[in-house]
Design a protein that fits this description.
This protein is of the alpha/beta class. It has two domains: about 270 residues, Aldehyde Dehydrogenase, Chain A, domain 1, CATH 3.40.605; about 180 residues, Aldehyde Dehydrogenase, Chain A, domain 2. About 40% of the residues lie in helices and about 20% in strands. It has 15 helices and 25 strands. Strand 8, helix 5 and strand 9 form a beta-alpha-beta unit. Helix 2 crosses helix 6, helix 4 runs parallel beside helix 5 and helix 9 packs across helix 10. The termini are far apart. The structure holds nicotinamide-adenine-dinucleotide. The site of nicotinamide-adenine-dinucleotide has 32 residues, from helix 7 and helix 8.
């Protein structure tokens, strides 16, 4: 423990964070519970239209009052100090992240540390977000492009990686000079809300970042529709993402969407099979499979398929599932009753479709938590729903193929295009995969790496736009073209026959 943080015995109350202070203006109360044991964690006061309006008005005022023209040095300092404070508060943040999302404590801690790196990376970009200059346009004529912040960004995030995902957006919005109103998932709001006081302590002017809590239906909807939010940066399901896009289209807002996935993870005969086995397991079952990047469609080349499947099933069988405070646990509970029922429904669909349930399918409700064991289907056809639809749980399918082209056809055969992985020692195959796999990220001989320098995002039903990296800053900016003449203007109307 770095800060002497002691896990709270009582439920923590949160309001919304508006203009640098908590606002507990009365709304419906929402209780978050620990999915591992049913204990109550945080009490939220839902922000209604009035409070969302106040948050957007304050954000707009703070944007106009100075943040949009703040220097790179100021932005960089604030973001760097924020990263330091995140590290100082890692114990508290990791505890709330674990308690609300049901992820293993060690994993939660790693995610908070990785988030701090995203804030640091964004800070490094602050002083180099430049435009272009055009000196070759002719005598007495110069032009340049300026990058200008879009305005107030509406940031809406899901429950599965709450702090990591807000850290993929918010520092990039702030470094661009945008103000923001953030709405985290109502299931896992605590760590995002804890950012409010951290940002204030780091020197962010009041109002530049406001955080509203509540349901998607009320708080989220009000935020997306607010006329002062000029950009929507949304991560969540494809269905709600489409809805966000519709709102954006009606109001002509800039829209960036990070949505669902159904990702293929390919292993070729010539791969480093030991490393591949570890990565395929990690890709399939991290966060109990509740991950947009889940490598849930495992594609094995015929020469290794039988042996790899056997080893994969053996290894998956021994994944420790359970109490998230135990250091050896790798898989925690399913987030909610609805998600639990949905995953079990897909297991039944898989069986009914004729796939072979080679492992798992077993579940239990114990001590207030809902657990589903690692589940593997073999004898799977690409047309089956379990091979097409995002399950968002610890369920994966195994299919085999002979040629690389067959693998690409299977991999590319869904509506989604978030990420894909391939294991091979053949450079030509790797290069071909990089070109042919229709996904925003292609991992070769690795999986789930994510340095802050690299853009992230999806194709097709997986979304629009990119976040993180330099591009992640530019997403929150518009380009303004400036043309300057210092003489040589040729009259076009006066004294001319038109
Ligand atoms: P969700 O779409 O149900 O909710 C996401 C957010 O949107 C939440 O804050 C929710 O309150 C809000 N919301 C819901 N309805 C809304 C509405 N009508 N108006 C405004 N906001 C609304 O998703 P979830 O269950 O929280 O997360 C799981 C999904 O997120 C999965 O599909 C997963 O693949 C996806 N995801 C994608 C990425 C990525 O980077 N591509 C990362 C993580 C999760």
């Amino acid at each position: 423990m770095t800060s002497g943080f002691i896990p709270p015995k009582a439920v923590r109350q949160f309001g919304s964070w508006i203009d640098g202070a908590w606002s507990f203006r009365q709304g419906a109360q929402i209780m978050s519970v620990n999915p591992a044991n049913g204990t109550r964690v945080s009490l939220l006061h839902e922000a209604g239209e009035g409070l969302v309006d106040q948050a957007c008005v304050r954000a707009h005022a703070a944007f106009e009052a100075g943040w949009r023209l703040s220097s790179g040095e100021q932005r960089s300092n604030v973001l760097m100090r924020t990263a330091g404070l995140i590290r100082e508060n890692v114990d508290e943040l990791a505890w709330f992240e674990m308690a609300e999302s049901g992820k293993p404590h060690k994993q939660a801690r790693l995610e908070i540390e990785r988030s701090a790196m995203l804030w640091e990376f964004a800070a490094t970009q602050a002083r180099s977000l430049t435009g272009d200059s055009f000196g070759g346009l002719g005598k007495d004529y110069l032009a340049l492009t300026l990058r200008a912040p879009v305005g107030v960004a509406a940031i809406v995030t899901p429950w599965n990686f709450p702090f990591l995902i807000v850290s993929q957006k918010l520092p990039f919005a702030l470094v661009a000079g945008c103000a923001a109103v953030v709405k985290p998932s109502e299931l896992t709001s605590a760590t995002t809300l804890l950012l409010g006081p951290i940002l204030k302590q780091a020197g962010l002017p009041d109002g530049v970042c406001n955080i509203v809590t509540g349901s998607g239906r009320l708080t989220g909807e009000a935020l997306l529709k607010h006329p002062l939010t000029r950009m929507i940066s949304f991560t969540g399901s494809t269905a709600v993402g489409k809805h966000a896009m519709e709102i954006g289209a009606r109001m002509l807002k800039k829209v960036s969407l990070e949505l669902g996935g159904k990702n293929a993870h390919i292993v070729m005969n010539d791969a480093d099979l030991g490393a591949a086995l570890d990565a395929v397991l990690h890709g399939a079952f991290l966060n109990a499979g509740q991950s947009c990047n889940q490598g849930g469609r495992i594609l094995l080349q015929n020469g290794i398929a039988k042996d790899f499947t056997r080893k994969f099933i053996e290894a998956a069988r021994s994944i420790p599932v359970g109490d998230t405070l135990r250091d050896d646990v790798l898989m925690g509970p399913i987030i909610s009753e609805a998600q639990y029922r949905k995953i079990l429904g897909y297991i039944e669909i898989g069986k009914a479709e004729g796939a072979t349930l080679a492992l798992g399918g077993t579940c239990r409700e114990e001590a207030g938590g809902r657990y589903i064991d690692p589940t593997v289907f073999t004898e799977v056809a690409s047309s089956m729903r379990i091979a097409q639809e995002e399950i968002f749980g610890p369920v994966c399918t195994i299919q085999s193929f002979e040629t690389l082209d067959e693998a690409f056809a299977i991999a590319n055969g869904t509506d989604y295009g978030l990420s894909a992985g391939i294991w091979t020692r053949d450079t030509a195959a790797a290069l071909k995969a990089a070109r042919e796999l229709e996904a925003g990220t292609v991992w070769v001989n690795t999986y789930l790496d994510g340095p802050a320098e690299l853009p992230f995002g999806g194709l097709g039903a997986s979304g629009i736009g990119r976040e993180v990296g330099r591009v992640g800053c530019e997403e929150f900016m518009d380009i303004k073209t400036v043309q300057l003449r210092s003489g040589g203007y040729q009259p076009r109307w006066i004294g001319k026959a038109i």
